[in-house]
Specification:
- There is one protein chain.
- It contains 12 helices and 9 strands.
- The protein is α/β, with parallel strands linked by helices.
Amino acid sequence: MIDLNNKEAISAIDKSDSYFSISNLAKQCKQAWTDTQTLELPNEYKTAQNICLCGMGGSAYAAYFIKALFSSSLNVPFELVNGYDIPAYINNKSLVLLSSYSGSTEETLSCAKQALSKQTKVTAVTSGLRLADFVKQNNLPAYIFNPLYNPSSQPRLGQGYMIFGHLGLLAKLGFIPLSTEKVNEAIGFLESKNSEIDDLGKEISQKLVEKIPVIVAAEHLSANAHTIRNQFNETSKNFSTYSLVSELNHHLMEGLVHPTKRILSFLVFRSFLYSSVIQKRISLTEEVLHKNNVDVLSATIQGNNKLQQVLYALSLGGYITFYLAILYKQDPSLVPWVDYFKEKLAR
């Protein structure tokens, strides 16, 4: 097995320097927040009666985090569109957020044309290409970022830009209660914990070799479960899934009997910020898992508030899946089957 402290051995596998992208998550967040706070957005955007974020894969993560962190304070309906078409109710009183890291996501570009035809209030977060051209040609406000801290060029490794790009826009428009002071505090916390999270990622990754990780989380960490599931798939080339408490307590536990070959490993995100009933459910869920002889790895997510914990878990997921890829001797940045599929689809 590869020594995860051997930087030369890791660099030989990590040809696109994914590690740099993962270890600079805090700088991505800082850049995106600072940039968006300087943007000028039309006042009429602040009067939107509903919000729709259109994005796929890593470019959709922001929607999950917005819902996980601000569902109790967002005072207008918020929806994620994972597809080619915006909902029928979208009209000129709607705010449409177009989200594509690369700027070439065909589903998002399809939604962009529909949003424009309905005269909606449109903005975007992207690094360039066709989506950047679209907003420029139509004189639309947007955050077009320079991904200085993501040399891998993979959207899932540049989440600081996508998540804080959208958080910055919504905060600027007054839809979510998020201040520069709170953001800087959370980013500072993440920077102070980076080395510790890196080490924890190494430790957990070694316990997941040739396992199927099942991520368990709840409430404000629910978006992290979705994100790390995708990162296991893309970064580690390892199948994974996730389930949220309390939904999983209504069905998943009965599915632990078969198959009898134990290749599942449950990665449970614990938090003292969960509501009391969820904390009790998490403990009982782990008890049931142990009684069924299933591997359980518990990770206590640190942070004094929800934003800090979300960033801690986001960073941890990046490190775990990176090191698992290294243990498999897989380049973390490459997505050969996604590329194959897109090439065939374009013909």
